[in-house]
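It is worth pausing here to work through a concrete case rather than discussing structure prediction in the abstract. The textbook approach is simple: state the sequence, then state the predicted structure, then interpret. We follow exactly that order.
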Amino acid sequence: SSACSFMTCMMYGIFTVNIVQHGLYWFTASSIYVWPVLALLSAAYILINLINNDIRKPVIWLFDSILWFLSGFSQEQYAVATLAALVCILIYGRGKIPYKYICYELFMGFCGAAIMLCAPGNWSRRSGSENMGIVERVIHNIPYLFSTVFSKPMLPFLLVILSISIIAALKLLKSNKHQPQNKIMIGFILSLWTAFSVLLATQTAIMEWNHLLMRIFIITITISGCFLVVFYLYKKEYIFQMICLIAAVSCYGAIAAVPTTPLRIVIPFILLSLPAITVMTAEAVDHLQSFVIFIPLSAFLISNMGGIYSGYKLNNPIHAENWAALRQAEDNIRFG
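Step two, the predicted structure:
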């Protein structure tokens, strides 16, 4: 529907200016963190459709296996996400199609991921800094990883996760197919989210974002929300979206051992979460009560996009002068 398409486009507002500067609009970073997601999403979508429709044409399976290799070979986070997605699809495809077909994809994805993760340069980078081993590096990095993932520039994304989690919780509570203990658990999580929303709305007057209590709330809400959305997608048989969300969460395992955790590491997580966010948006559009949740959220996302656009528009004359100077220098070198 048009409303669903509108909300999907609004999800571009998830990216704050910090992420845009150092990830999306920086050519080198975008080629590493943005473009590989196309290979992974395409490979997963094609493979799930091959399994569901029992298609056994070798050419299509070969093409999909190449996509899995490219996905695993592209970047460390996508390598781990590729393996996680393949394992999930392997479990999903059990009994639906002979394992020998899926094993081709698993082998190609594993080879690509192994080449990426075991490359001498990457291995040296993970283990060579500050004389730490891999295990020590992981233990050392976990606090910094959480600080990056749950930092203030991630606020729009965390709000989106909160919104789709509330929608999933409300729909699960309305369903009569779940046992009372499951509804009690969902209701308890929903209560925590309500408390978090109140705290978030008043956090500037009560405490700073970096306050320990605020961080605990944020982490609890995000993790429980992701699990609840995964559960809802599974119940509704949105398999592709569910697997993408699982892969999104797993991709953080690749950076637990790296020396630095820049903000752009969140880009694969956000991009791989978009299929789940999109389908949950569609669920909200179909029901007015759920769609009301997205009205203030969409206003916030539009405001964020407007701020980024106005900033780049303000700097455009300077960029134009820089490009003109570069072209003039190029002409001077070319023509002597």
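Step three, interpretation. The chain has a mean pLDDT of 78. The longest helix spans residues 288-335.
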